Each structure stands twice: as structure tokens, then as C-alpha cells.
Amino acid sequence: MNYKAIEITTVEAEKLLLSQYNIVGKANKLPGEIDVNFKIKTENENYVLKISPPNKNSTYLDFQQKLLQYLEKQNSNLTVPKVLLDKNNSSISEITDKAGNKRKVRLLTWISGRVWSNVNPQLNDLRYSLGEQCGLITLALNNFTHPEIHRKFDWDIAQSLWTKQHINLFNEEEKELIIYFQQQFEAGFNSYKKLRKSVVHNDANDNNIIVSSELIHPKVIAIIDYGDSIHTQIINDVAVACSYAMMNHNDPLEAALPIVKGYHSKFNLNQNELNHLYCAIAMRLVISVTKSAINKIKQPNNKYLQISEKPAWILLKKWRKISLEFAYFSFRKACGFKAHPNEHKFKKWTTKTNFNLTQLFPTIHKNEVKLLDLSVSSKWIGHHEEFNDLDLFEFKINKLQSKNPSKIIAGGYLEPRPLYTSTAFDKIGNYGKESRTIHLGIDFWLPKNTPVHALFDSEVVVSFNNTGNKLYGGLLILKHTFDELEFFTLYGHLSVESITNNNVGKHIKKGDCIGYLGNPIENGNWVPHLHFQVMLSLLDYKNDFPGVAFYNEIEVWKSICPNPNQLFKISELQQKKDISNKELISYRKKHLGKSLSLQYKQPVKMVRGFGPYLMDPFGKKYLDTVNNVAHVGHENYKVVKAGTDQMALLNTNSRYLHENINELAKELIETLPKELNVLHFVNSGSEANELAIRMVKAATGERDIIASEVGYHGNSNMCIDISSYKFDGSGGNGAPENTHIFPLPDAFRGKYRGENAGANYAEEVKILVNQVQQKGRNIGGFIVEPIISCGGQIELPSGFLKKSYEIIRNAGGICISDEVQTGCGRMGKTFWGFQLHNVVPDIVTIGKPLGNGHPIAAVACTQKVADKFANGMEYFNTFGGNPVSCAIGTEVLKIVKKEKFQENALIIGEFLKSELKKLAHKFPIIGEVRGQGLFLGIELVDSKLTPLKEQTNYLANRMKDHHILMSVDGPDHNVLKIKPPLIFSKTNAKELIYFLKKILSEDFMNSYKKDKS
After folding, report:
1. C-alpha dihedral (131, 134, 139, 144), degrees to nearest 10
2. CA–CA distance, 973 with 877 (Å, rounded to integer)
3. 3-state secondary structure 861-900
4. H helix or E strand, kind and range, residue 342
5. pLDDT over threshold 70, residue 810
6. Which DSSP string corresponds to 161-218?
7. What is the arithmetic mean of pLDDT over 685-698?
8. Neighbour count for residue 507 (Cβ, 10 Å)
9. Dihedrals φ, ψ of 855, to 5°?
10. Roughly how many angstroms between the first and final C-alpha of the chain, as a whole number?
11. Mean pLDDT to the nearest integer, 349-370
């Protein structure tokens, strides 16, 4: 067909509209596979004008019109295009085009909304609503009939084996993939062809799905273009919707499940239909890539026909890696069935049987168990450095065994564990990095060479030496058959000899010895134990089977792998009930301070930390860009050990002599200018700033303090009095009489901007000094952070600090640098923030980063200030400078120096800043990137510099969905702060940038443009 010869221009479409429908409108061309389509805009309504190619089957067009009219009469609460009649009262018009061809014309109402392909992100609730809409359409069409519903149709999955004729269009790798799915489909065809049939939409693709206008939690409101509707197996309609909506996801099965669940909620799917869904999805994709291959030859310039080819191939390859059975079990669970069909049957069988541990370990002579908690929140396993130390782990196991000589140490079913540190346990899912953490068996911790015996008559189906760190080592899987029940038992961490003596196919009798527990060299680098697991299916595994699962798949896995304790019925192995987040929140609201807040719309419970990560109770890791207090990494082992070692010896106050306080003082003074050589140790940044203000008053005899707008210096009374962030915020009463606030020295959106901003803001300080002096008083002190954190990571403008110090000192005042957040190497270029401005303050306050989160802080001051503060009134702080805190603080400073964390802050900070600026170029919503080292901020504004609070909050919450923690600050709550532990690596930085880019591309993040247009 000569496609150029049958083209219709927009002008021709507008004339046609007037001549056939008496409607005046503006035509805009739309994409289409067969018809020439136009969107028609009029003053009151919008329409779709569809012009068919010459000699188009009239019966087929009549079928489409009748179907839409049928749906309209159903009153099914569906939104569907309505058929408009022409001037002759016909639903189908006929015209003659410029080439003399007879063409059929139809006019439908336009359904407003966004097409699926333009919606970002496409989250689970949106996919669920897609399933709902498809299910509703099938329900409404259930009794529709027309001769064309039984037509021959290439896009009908039931007829998809026509693709076999075109296998020669593909290369060898592609052929292998397509033939595999064709053979799978054929193998189940006799069962498949008996499935329920109905007329279904059959084409819920990216451009046929209409989504509501809401940018947060949008819903599918309609599905258009019923041209592919056909009488076919109902499950095919589910497959079509899934095959398109699964594209561009790392985990396509996870993406499909909400669609299946939504469909089932409106039109019940049965279990046999679900059994064929995996292959139906694959065959739809096979049709798609085959059509694309054919169309590239027929119409090489028609890009619409090839639009889904590349993502279809990518999806086919991913789909091939997913077990057919696992997909089936997942579909079942999504529809409310037991994931594995035999779950109940197995449970019922175990109620009639009873086994004990002496049958599994006859030489041990023990039937009781000591439960061992190896969960993420377990204190027994301790630090991750310790549970990776085999000798230490074995020592602890042996000590526990010696305390419980009559019991076998055991446990672990469905336990979320942090132990699996090998990358073999990781993948990139739809929401970032995921790790397998959920243990699917029971571990029995027994000495190496302990014999293991068969509980049942068995056949060996897997005998394999699964080498690799944290893998099984020697692995046996046995098959058992009882009447119509078949299941498997897995024995991991056996000796190599155990594998050698058990070939696949070997029959084993109940009570036979099947192997021995291996040593760490041969069992995957574990302390000797048996991993015992029950499975109702082997899925597609030949020489392996997961012993640990991803948390988001737990409901499926626990059905495939039921609790082995159903065999033994040991009460000590019964799972404990965890306290839910809902319960925790409820208790907090009732019994904790009402002003305590929680981070994020959906708060997260954290139970473990390591390096730059925090971990929730299920083992999900969150990259932390928020908690600068964990200065050298969460639970840094050297810091933890320094604290616990000293705590085991002594912890008391500083009135006794001890080396630790002197050692910490030496380490700290080494980092400071020579003028700042007197230290006072306290327990927090608030205490440090409180003490600094006391020193000011003692040294000057004055009480008036100058501080920054939106500055925050702590939570004690005196600190609140100098913190504009608090007293000018919600619940505050404004500045006290002796506190004087200069404007936030923001050169981006502040009162003064440009080259002279520093001098202008310093002039504001001078004005405040003059106002105080005019009242007959003088300035006591001036306090500011080198980068104002709560102000939104505001870098002080060039020259501001130096000039302000000069003004304050000329007035007899004291200059305080609040380094609680900026100090100890975080700035990268310098160890302390004030050093960026070539000044030396009179007092420096240091906070909990000094202790990596442990309550230690310090005040450093000049000899002159110290002498005046020592006025006869003793300063004593019971636990300020205690031996434990000092040991920790010393270790933190040593780590920063020896491990070059200040250099890391510079290198990674500069890399991050550079990449963030590239993002700002691509996404103008980022108005400014600022900060130093690993203390950065990105401010979100529109083109008029209006702060975008809602977008900032959205971005932080969406980053949390992708397991990255970020915080929001600034007076307008439109700044994202980046202040991670200094261990933050380039890999971490790249991950942060990748997901920032992903979320910045989402619709809501770009809605500000429309709001202002």
C-alpha cells in the first residue's frame, strides 16, 4: 500500500468534519497503526476523527461502533468514547479522498486526561487502577456479540503461533528466546484453549490508557481505541495490560502484580487462568517484536509501528529469567489465593505426622532447642565486623552452647538477617538496591562432622558443591512423595564428601545418614551448622535454591517454603510477633512529648546502622545523606570498640585524673589555630553553646547577643533565646530583649545579592551594634555558623564574617563560631568552617559529631576568654569529659586524620557539587547548589525565585521510597540538605545523583511550570 497516497492533511480533515458532521473545528494529527486519526478542538467539545484506509472492512468498523454503543447502554460506570452520528444519522460516514478512494469516517467524543505514556511515575496504585478498568470493561462486554468478534487477528494471543512462520527475521539469540516462549505456550495449549472466553479490549497500551490529571496518586479513568477487541481467553486481556505496563521496570513481575490484583478485584480470575498468564504475557511480547520486524521491512519510516520494539525485547529477556512457577505463585497471591496450591495440603499432612530432632541428628541425643536470634535488630550478633569474624562467631556459639548443654541452638525461619553481605544477595529493583535478607529455613548450630539423617524416604534431586562466600557449600536437596503430596527438603552447609556420596537419582531410606556438617572452608565460610529448609516446588533451579529471599516477596516465598517447624512442632521455634510501626507511633503519641516529630509521611523504623547506611527491621538498607552526627560512619567499629573497651573499665567524672581527657584535648587542639588552646568538654552542642554564652557574659559583662535570622544553636533556654529558627518559628514569641537578629546572609534570595552582599550584610550587623549602644548597653557576643544549616545551608557571602568580626571586636564583643554541624573536617577545604573565611574566633563550639553521635561536645576558647570565665564560680559538668566520651572523641578525630576523611569530604563534595550543578542545568527547579565539602544544599525555586516547598517535600519522600534518606530545611522549607557521614563514597554519590535525576523528572516536580503559566 502506498501510504503517502492515502495521507489526509489537517486542512482536509477540517473540511471533512464540516461536510459530514456540520462541525467547525481545528484538527491536530494523532498517531495510529491503521486509521488516520485527528484530535478535533471546537469551542465547546473535543472529538477524535478516525479515517480508515481504502477498502476497509465495513463489518469490522460496524463492530467497533456497535461495541462502543453497547458499552454506553450498559451504564457500567465506565468512561468510554461516545459515537457521534453524521448528518445522515449514520455512525459511519463515507467519503472519496483526493485519489478517488472510498474511505470510511467515524467521529467519537474525546476523553480528557493524560495518556499513560506521558505519566511519570507509574506507581503501584496507578497500575492497580489500570487493572480495575480492564476488569470493568471485560465485565461490561461479557454478553456482547457481533460477527467480527471471531475474526482472524494477529494481535490475539490465542492465535499467536503465526509468529513461528517469521522466526527467520531474528538473529540466533533472539530466535532462542522466541522459540522458548513459543514452545512453552504450545506445551500448555490444550489446557489454555479451554479457559473462559469473552470479548475483551485487548489493547491497553501506552497510548490507549487515559489517566486522571492528579499528579500525585493519579488513577486510570478510561481506556480508548476498541479496534483490537476480540473474543478470546479472558486472561489474554490481563496479559496485554501487563505486557505494556511492565516495560521499563527492573523487576517486571513486581510491576505486573498490582495490575493482576486490580483486574481480579473487578472481574474474578480463576486459578487455572493465572497458570497461563506468564506465557500469555510472553506471547504478546513475541507478537509485538515479530510485528515490528515485519513492519520495518514493509514501512521502514513508520516509527509508530516500531515504538515498543526495544522495550519489548528488553522485557522478554527479563521475563525469561523469571521462573514460570514463581510468576504463577505470585499471581495467585495477588488475587488472594494461597501462593502455592499445596500450602494447605502440606500443612494438613504435617498435623498427622510428628518428627523429632533425634531423627535428624541421632548422635546428638537432644530434642530441645535454644532459640538464637540472628535478626537485623539482634544484639547477640553485635557489630557487622563481629558477625563477619568466623572465629568470634564460633566462640560465641560455643559459649551459648556451654550455657545450654541439653539443647540444640537453632532458629531463623523468616528471620530478617543482616548477615548476607555478599553481592550475590543483591539486585537493583524498581525502587533502588534490594538485598535478600529473609531466611527461609531453620539453622541448627552443631559441630562440624555432625551426621545428618533422612527424615523420610527420599530421592536425591540436587547434589552440588555450591562454592562461594556465604553460599551453601555442600548442598543436598531430597524429594519426598506421600500419596498426592510432593515436597522437597534442603540440607545446606554439608561437607564436600556428603555431596560426593549422593548422586542425583539415588534413593535414600528414612533414617539413612545423608551427610555431615562441613567446616568453614567447604561450607561457604560459615560457622558449622545445618540449613534445613522445606520447599513445595523447586521452581527452575537445577543446582541451587534460595535460602534467603527479598522482603517484598516474602508472602510468596513463605508459601513455597513453609515453616520446617511444622514437622517438629517445637514451641521455642515459634515466630515472635514484632511491634508494628502503628503501635510504636500510637505509644509515642500517648506517652512521649507532643512536640516530638517523625521524619517522612510514612515514618521508618531503623534498628541498625553501618557506614553510610541505616537498616530497617527487615534488612532494607537506606543510604543516609541526613545524619551528619554519625561523622565517621554509622556504628564505626573503631569508635564502638573504643567506647565499649573504656566502658568496661571506668566511667566517671573529670574531677579524677585520667589520660583520656588530656589525649582528646591534644587531638583537638592540634586541629585549631594556636589562639584557641583552652577546652571545656560538655555533652551536646546545646550545652556547648550555652557555655559559650556564659563565657561571653563573664568576659564582657554584657548580655546582648547578635545572631543570624533562622539561626539555630540548641534546645536549652539560653540557646533558644539566641535561635531565630525557634523563637521566630511556630510557637515562638519573637526575639528576647537582649537578642538582636541580622537578616539571613543569603546572597541568592536574601535581602542583598551580588558582589557586595557580604559588605551589605555586615553593615546590618553594625546597625544592630549601634542600636544596642544607643540604649546605653554594649554587645556581649556574636554567634553564627560558617554555613547556616537551618537557614538552608547558606554559605556566608565573601567578606561578611571578617568584617562582622571586626565590627564586633571594635565594640568589645566576643566572636563565636558555631561548628556543631560544620566542624571536624566536614568542610573538606578546611578542618573548621571559620577557616574558610580567614578569621579566628574567640570561641568555637563543637557538637556530637565529635563523638560520632555519642553525647560529647566541646568549647574551645582563647586564654583571655578562659581567664575571665574563671572568675571564682566553678564550672563542673558531671559527664562532660568523662573517660568513655573522651576515648570515643579521640578515636573519631584519629579516624578523620588517619583515614583522610577531610580529604574525602573535599573530593566527594566537589564531585557531588559538580554533578548537582549539571542537574540544575537540566532541571531549572534547582535554583542554587551551595555549600562546602559534605555539607551541601540544593534550593528549589521557580523562574521568579519563588520557593517550592511542596516539590521539595515530595522529592525527599520519593527519595525515601528509593531507599535514600534526605532532609528538608530553610525558612521556606525548600532546601534539600546533603550532609552524610564522611565515609560517603563516590559510588554513594553517583547513586544519590541517579535517583535525584529520576525523581526530578517526575510530573509533580515539573508542575510548578504550569502553576505559574
Report:
1. -170
2. 36
3. ECHHHHHHHCCCCCCCCCCCCCHHHHHHHHHHHHHHHHCC
4. none
5. yes
6. GGGGGGGGGS-HHHHHHHHHHHHHHHHTHHHHTTS-EEEE-----TTTEEE-S-SSS-
7. 96
8. 10
9. -70, 85
10. 45
11. 95
Residue 793: closest CA among 838, 745, 837: 745
Mean pLDDT across 849-860? 96
Residue tagged 529469567 (cell numbers):
321
Q: What is the pLDDT of residues 306-330, one digit of tens each?
A: 666 899 999 999 999 999 999 999 9
- Give the three-state DSSP class for 381: coil
- Dihedral-angle region of residue 19 (phi above 0 means left; psi in -120 to 50 means alpha; beta otherwise): alpha
Euclidean distance between CA atoms 702 and 455, whole angstroms: 84
CA 586 and chain centroid, separation: 25
CB 1005 within 8 A of CB 954: yes
Q: At what angle do helices 277-298 and 172-187 cross, to 10 degrees?
A: 140
Helices (H), 22-171: 58-74, 124-140
The grid coordinates listed for 788 are 547556616
Give the DSSP per-residue string, 205-258: -TTTEEE-S-SSS--EEEE---TT-EEEEHHHHHHHHHHHHTTT-SSHHHHHHH
Cβ pair 538, 473 in contact under 8 A: no
Q: Which residues contact 671 (CB under 8 A, 6 or more apart)?
A: 824, 831, 832, 893
**40-52 as b/e, with b when 16 or more CB fall inside 10 Å?**
beeeeeebbbbbb
CA 313 to centroid of chain Cα atoms: 26
List beta partners, residue 613: 610, 623
Residues 936-971: pLDDT tens digits?
Answer: 999 999 999 999 999 999 999 999 999 999 999 999
- Write the DSSP symbol of residue 553: G
DSSP string over 612-674: TEEE-TT--EEEESS-TTSTT-BT-HHHHHHHHHHHTT----TTS--HHHHHHHHHHHTTS-T
Asked if 612 and 981 count as a contact pair (C-beta separation under 8 A), the reply is yes
φ/ψ of residue 388, rounded to 5: -90, -5
**Which of these, 377, 369, 474, 461, lies nearest to 417 by C-alpha position?**
377
Distances (CA, A) of 249 to 123, 324, 437, 779, 994: 11, 18, 22, 61, 15
CA angle centred on 367, ends 362 and 371, rounded to 5°: 125
Cell numbers placing 991 = 547513586
Residue length of the chain: 1013
Alpha carbon distance 410, 629 (integer Å): 37
Neighbours of 906 (CB within 10 A): 19
Q: Could you say which DSSP state residue 79 is in?
A: B
Instruction: Say which DSSP state 98 is in.
Output: T
Q: What number of helices (H) and strands (E) belong to the chain?
A: 32, 41
Average pLDDT of the segment spanning 119-144? 97
- pLDDT digits 0-9 by tens, 174-217: 999 999 999 999 999 999 999 999 999 999 999 999 999 999 99
At 80, the amino acid letter reads: V
Distance from C-alpha of 799 to C-alpha of 756, rounded to nearest angstrom: 9
Closest-CA residue to 905 (of 787, 990, 984): 984
Q: What pLDDT score was predicted for residue 3?
A: 58
Residue 528 preceded by cis peptide, ω within 30? no
Q: Which residues, in sequence order, are CB contacts of 103 under 8 Å at separation 6+?
A: 6, 51, 52, 53, 54, 56, 94, 95, 96, 97
Across the chain, mean pLDDT equals 94
Q: For the residues 603-614, what does the mean pLDDT come to?
A: 93
Q: Of all helices (H) and strands (E), which one includes residue 929?
A: strand 926-932
Q: Which residues contact 705 (CB under 8 A, 6 or more apart)?
A: 693, 696, 721, 722, 738, 739, 740, 779, 780, 781, 782, 783
Specify the pLDDT at position 1013. Answer: 45
Strand order in the sheet with 964-965: 608-610, 613-615, 621-624, 964-965
